[in-house]
Specification:
Layout (H helix, E strand, L loop, with lengths): L6 H9 L11 E4 L4 H12 L4 E5 L16 E5 L5 H8 L4 E4 L10 H20 L3 E7 L9 H14 L5 E6 L2 E2 L4 H12 L2 E4 L6 E2 L2 E2 H10 L10 E4 L5 E2 H11 L6 E4 L5 H11 L4 H10 L10 H5 L7 H13 L25 E9 L3 H8 L12 H13 L20 E2 L2 E7 L3 E6 L5 E11 L4 E11 L1 H40 L4
């Protein structure tokens, strides 16, 4: 296993980036809650840029490490609302377009992506922006494009059609802790010593480390020659997906994998296989698998000529990603970009619930810390076998299951994925709410609240379910017997963990 990455090395890499001019206008950024955008914010702020982050929900930014930085301006924007978007852009200089609709059902993402791109280009012109910067994918030229790559190409064309000049970056496989590409690679290699794969396993690709992508995205702001250009981003090595898998196995300390390509595995079948074996949702896996049939190799090296930087080799990028995973330093994950559920309007309809409470003398801080450790490798404090069974059943019907895990083992922030839940409310030392993203015939939430009574705390655990039709009611009453086993033990485990932590703290600070 790779050693944890050096903080000094990362800091020196960032320090080499050009700083923002003193009189620079704010940068308008979409996708701040996504994998690339969530990292780009901190890189920009670090180099002195003011970032105006446009998000669907301000709650998703509250617990980010850069959320309280005075150089961040967070605005809640509907990207489909041209007037609202234009108003949010006013006063900015450059803008990053880092959004996509790959999880929209079927091929609808293609039309939605183009519509949003046209609206964005029009709003950028109306607001008087200097330039637009877009991150697409390699392989977006020539005939026979996959639907996904064709859609990304159409987005680039829609943005370029506006009067505001476009800088279009095209990257292939992005290797970094928490990226969808890296997660697919790691899980496939770890779980399958023998792999039956589609023919695309022999297709060539040019992987690039996420830090090299971020370097280009930041440096282009200070490189006028990049305005109005298309630039390919790739690392120093070209290899087949088979070779990439074997390199990953080597980095993990595993034996070489036996890889058997067959012609009958379609992108649809491949996406469901990825769904079952890895944490990646089949809706996201389908366009990714479909695009793997296209060769994704840089056509030239203009990007590195215009913006020189040390490029990590594939093994170095994988080692760095594994090091960050093992040391709990994953800044963003592919699952961060999931939609934030709105209020499901519990009033006015049938709402079923399971409410339990217990008291404890442990302080609120210890209880809340126990809330925040649920899921992932920690598990659910008790009856983990039943939780794993529920996750496995969810994967079979197309849900996320438990394999998404969580971004950080100790801390949660609004928008984080926790197995088949998503964090929708975080009130430090008081309340935590999760909303279910598993396949359900209804809407489900699980929340914990701390009520302070002075000498003790009451911990309230509430599971709520709003059924959709008769099938939803049948589902609730079918699983109700399991709730009797799971929920009391979950709450008891939380209390026990909080009291154990409190006792440990008291022991450490006890006078000798």
């Amino acid at each position: 296993m790779a050693a944890p990455p050096s903080a000094d090395a990362t800091a020196s890499f960032r320090a080499a980036l050009p700083r923002a001019p003193v009189d620079a206008k704010p940068v308008f950024l979409t996708g701040a809650t996504g994998y690339i955008g969530g990292r780009l914010v901190s890189w920009l702020i670090d180099r002195g840029w003011t970032v105006r982050a446009a998000v669907r929900s301000l709650n998703k930014l509250q617990a980010r490490p850069w959320a309280a930085d005075p150089r961040l301006q967070a605005v809640e924007v509907d990207l489909a609302d041209s007037e609202q978007l234009t108003q949010a852009m006013r006063g900015c200089g450059p803008a990053y377009y880092l959004v996509h609709s790959m999880l929209v059902a079927g091929s609808a993402f293609h039309a939605q992506d183009q519509t949003l791109a046209r609206i964005f280009a029009g709003a950028a012109a109306a607001a008087g922006l200097d330039r637009v910067i877009y991150l697409g994918g390699l392989g977006e030229t020539g005939p026979g494009l996959s639907e996904h790559l064709a859609s990304r190409r159409a987005v680039e064309e829609a943005l370029a059609a506006g009067p505001v000049p476009l800088t279009a970056f095209r990257a292939g496989v992005i290797l970094g802790s928490g990226s969808a590409s890296f997660e697919i690679l790691r899980y496939l290699v770890e779980r399958l010593p023998v792999m039956v794969t589609p023919r695309w396993v022999g297709t060539e690709c040019q992987p690039i480390a996420v830090r090299n992508v971020l370097h280009a995205l930041v440096t282009c702001l200070s490189t006028p020659a990049t305005i109005g250009t298309n630039l390919d981003l790739g690392g120093p090595e070209v290899m087949s997906y088979r070779e990439l898998m074997q390199t990953t196995a080597e980095a993990l300390g595993l034996r070489r994998r036996m890889i058997i390509p067959v012609p009958v595995l379609t992108p649809r079948l491949s996406s469901w296989w990825i769904h079952l074996v890895t944490p990646i949702d089949h809706r996201l896996a389908r366009p990714l698998a479909d695009g793997l049939r296209n060769r994704v190799v840089c056509r030239d090296n203009r990007a590195i000529t215009l913006m020189p930087q040390p490029l990590l080799r594939v093994r170095e990028a994988i080692d760095l990603a594994l090091g960050r995973e093992s040391s709990g330093q994953v800044e963003t994950r592919w699952s961060d970009a999931g939609p934030m559920p709105g209020d499901p309007h519990w009033s006015g309809g049938t709402v079923l619930g399971d409410r339990r409470s217990r008291t404890t003398v442990a302080p609120a801080q210890a209880v809340f810390a126990a809330f925040c450790r649920v899921g992932g490798k920690q598990g659910w404090y008790a009856t983990d076998g039943l939780w794993r069974l529920r996750g496995w059943l969810d994967r079979l019907v197309g849900g996320p299951g438990l394999r998404r895990g969580r971004r950080d083992p100790l801390h949660l922030q609004t928008g984080d994925a926790v197995d088949f839940w998503r964090v929708t409310t975080v009130e430090t030392d008081r309340r935590l709410e999760l909303t279910a993203e598993m396949r359900l015939p209804g809407e489900a939430r699980l929340e914990w609240t701390i009520v302070d009574h002075g000498t003790h705390r009451e911990v309230v655990q509430l599971a709520r379910f709003r059924p959709l039709g008769l099938f939803g009611l049948l589902y609730w009453y079918t699983v109700a017997p399991l709730h009797v086993l799971v929920f009391p033990r979950l709450l008891a485990g939380i209390i026990r963990a909080a009291e154990d932590e409190d006792n440990l703290v008291r022991t450490i600070h006890k006078p000798t």
